[in-house]
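Hi X.,

You mentioned you wanted examples for the new student's onboarding notes, showing what a folding record looks like when two proteins sit in one file. Here is a clean example. The first protein comes first, with its sequence line followed by its structure tokens.
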Amino acid sequence: MAAVIFQPDPLVSAHIPVEKYLAMYQTMVLIRRFEETANELYMQGKIPSTLHLYIGQEAVAAGVIAQLRQEDYILSTHRPHGHALAKGVHPRAIMAELFGKGTGACKGKGGSMHVGDIRVGMPPAIAIVGGNTPLAAGAALAFKLQKTDLVSVSFFGDGAANEGVWHESLNAAAIWNLPVIFVCENNLYGASTSFKSVFHVDQVAERASAYGMPGIIADGNDVLAVYQAAGEAVQRARKGDGPTLLECMTYRQCGHSRSDPRTYRTREEEDTWKLKDPIAGFRSYLLAQQLAAENQLQAVESKVEAQIQDAIEYAESSPLPEPAEVTTDVFKE
């Protein structure tokens, strides 16, 4: 069962409602502007700890999650803001969490790497590399035992695919035929380590054959390719046909974290990938195909700016957690 390079079908794209196109565009712009703003606030000293930004990878979160229901689960990793925004976690809750405020998604206790909201199908993100894959498999097992048609999705980077628990999770999902989609956001680097230096296969998706599940490779900077590929995987899972490994080839336009000077990659490489920017590309597509007018896209962009400003004001005006709350919601054996 060899990995397959996914080719989006123009006929499928032609039947996507205009509202869905605009919703995905809004999601992508919201993620980008949220991340850019968070970076600025960090540089101003308003956000403690560090940040792992999602800039450049927006099409993956937007495309995959557009195929999900609110009741479906997503499990994210240490770069979770984009997934959270796409799944419906409120920008206010995420921003307040970044500020360490008591109104944050995790009451100011988790910070950037632990945002989520179980009410919209996103348990708080898992900062441990590969640590969310067994949870996604577990959620899928629960859905199956409950005889629902819900699915779970695990988002992870290429580096996670070399963790032992990742292999165990895929194996369990395959042998139990679980409704889970494993989404690898292959941005070519695990922190500062090149994908090519730690893999003896050309693609992560090639490993799917070892577990007897489909391995699909999609252009992770093309939101429509991601949307279609994810749609097939989600439909397969809902029908009871088991898991899929979906590898989305993309590129983060920033460092691994705020302390990363990016000396391990060339500026020529970065410039080449910026020409493939997922938001600029999708915006051009919408205009060229006359799916949206310039004023419609500007209206979306203005709405996003208002959301960002509202989130900042909410975070800045929110109270810090009370010291007495330090053990609240903490599991005690």
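Then the second protein repeats the pattern, sequence line and then tokens:
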Amino acid sequence: MLEAIASAARLSVAQVRRAAMYARDLGAVAQAAMLGGAAALERFQLELFVPVAPMLAQTAPDVGTALRELGGEAAFEWKMDGARIQVHKRAEEVRIYTRGLNEVTAALPEVVELARSLSAQVLILDGEVIALDNAGRPHAFQITMRRVGRRLDVEAMRAGLPLKAFFFDCLRLEAESIADRAARERFEALATAVPASAQMPRLITSAEPAAREYYEAALAAGHEGVMAKSLTAPYEAGNRGAGWLKIKRVHTLDLVVLAAEWGHGRRSGKLSNLHLGALDPSSGQYVMLGKTFKGLTDVMLEWQTREFLRRETHRDDWTVYLRPELVVEVAFTDLQASTRYPGGLALRLARVKRYRDDKSAAEADTMEAVRRIYAAQSGSARS
């Protein structure tokens, strides 16, 4: 629909998308575009207590690539695995919204208190809220989420699991929306509005060694990696803009395919969603760790459908179960505790890298390797 409006009004999709993110009515955007063009779309601005979808990031493999793609200098911030929050403030009135635009003000009294303590009368801030342990290291994402959205016994829960907010962007300061300004200006506004203790750690540099050291420091502190941000880009609400790049630690495991589900849409007739597992030496059984359909090319889909059917043991309406023979290299960001799978662990953001036709199932990674990775990322392996 955005593309249709842009085409009919002879405007760019970016102009229409920006207006649509701030408008409550797409029909009003279409009318403004057709009757008034780009100038009319400018009247759609960020409004207080009307949350907008957050800006999202694309992915870069490393800090060197990020620097090149962002023009040679960038802001690097710690990428925390917390809950995204958008804080709107007018005097003592504070409302907090999630990434999905749900209001969670009552669940986060410490963030409300922080916002009320700021000297600015009107603010809209973008940031993360996260639970930290006594050493200042992050708890797992699921633990943070026990607080976010909590409706009952909030104060009792707060006493045992306090949250800390880290803000990384300022979208409005006093009477003026600054979301369309360059990031460097928004960072300056953030620095005037929010104390350093509540700002996301940030390094602005053009030097790859310094950026790499900062990335390693973020990982050492228990975080996912870093965000790299263009200093000239505006805030693109709801868009996965090229001005933000995420650089995350990636693990890989060689896992065994236990089953696969039939695909949908253009993957109809192909076995697509893989059930991935590792052998538990203590029981001699394969333990499922998750599913993924990401990273599969058309050639891989054709090949694996043929090979899976040759190894079929049984099936139900959606799934074909296999002899545990094929090994696939899977990249993933981390492991999380899970009650869904019998091993108690699940892959997060898993993606197929390649099939390991050079490895037999006996040479694949076992649950011992999986547990070592989980222990290292959770900090239980620290000396």
